[in-house]
Amino acid sequence: MTDAAQTSAERQAFYDQIGPHHLAPLWERLHALVTRTPSTPVQPVKWDYDNVVRPFLMQSGGLITAKEAERRVLILENPGMKGHTSATHSLFAGLQLIMPGEVAPAHRHAASALRFIVEGTGAYTAVEGERAIMQPGDFIITPSWTWHDHGNETDKPVVWLDGLDIPMIRLLDASFAEPANSESQSVSRPVGDSLARYGANMVPVDWKPERISSPVFSYPYSRSREALATLARNGEPDPCHGYKLRYINPGSGGSPMPTIGAFMALLPAGFASSPYRSTDGTFYAVVEGEGETTIGDTVIRWKPRDLFVVPSWAVHHHKAAKESVLFSFSDRPVQEVLSLWREDRLHG
Ligand code: GTQ
Ligand code: FE2
Fold it and tell me: For the domain bounded by 45-345, which CATH number is listed?
């Protein structure tokens, strides 16, 4: 045996000895753990909504009821994290279908959720006794431990994107959940009440925030879209982002929920963004337009309702063939509060 082989055999024997005592050598793992730059199993991936996902989703509608399923959701699982129920390392994504007449029963849980409406108009999500009527492009939140149920009283299927911080809650072993006594919450406030109270750049005169999350729980697309259109008329786009806004909690200026940041960008027709990377792996939903996003060596061509993932620290840029609108969400607020978030603007 060579010296090197002998050393290696001795070390392995030592590791085998200490293993049963719940001990392991850090020096064999250190460089894979404390990496010089982020190293993620998350892969760039796209889901084609119209041609692939939607037919399967509608098939699931005949297979199980919303009541039976509790939530009829197809998980958008990252191929780099099979079996982990994660879209990015920290966030879950899924597409939820509610057929005409169905109700997804009321419950609450520690996990925070966002909804981004993909298809269908007029279904509702009720949060803490107030219903929000859903339209495509609307952004709706159900903060941690708030009661929520969904229903579709229209005659067409309704589909939305769910984004939840389930992987973070799992990391922290802090999951709690509880079903409600009745299937649907009784309505205690009229539609539009919280938007009027907190979403008109005004708040009730003596209001003090009771929770860390936003008192506005529905952010209609019409308003976000109009803001972006005005920005696009009034000035130049950011080279990396186009015209990009972040959704806020009007009580704090921070993200609507503490664990998930959400954004909407308008890319003008013909716009090609400069290469960019950031530490928050990001989930995208295409609202309008047509274009492509290049992530490292992967080119993702997209159209309305397509969904895709940009992993942490992956260099990427967008090209918009038509004027396009991209919704996205990530764990950026978590990284920011921990002083971990970083970005790099590269020169194209
Ligand atoms: O709609 O309440 O995709 O609780 C996963 C967990 C949706 C929901 C999901 C949930 C929900
Ligand atoms: Fe839920």
Answer: 2.60.120.10
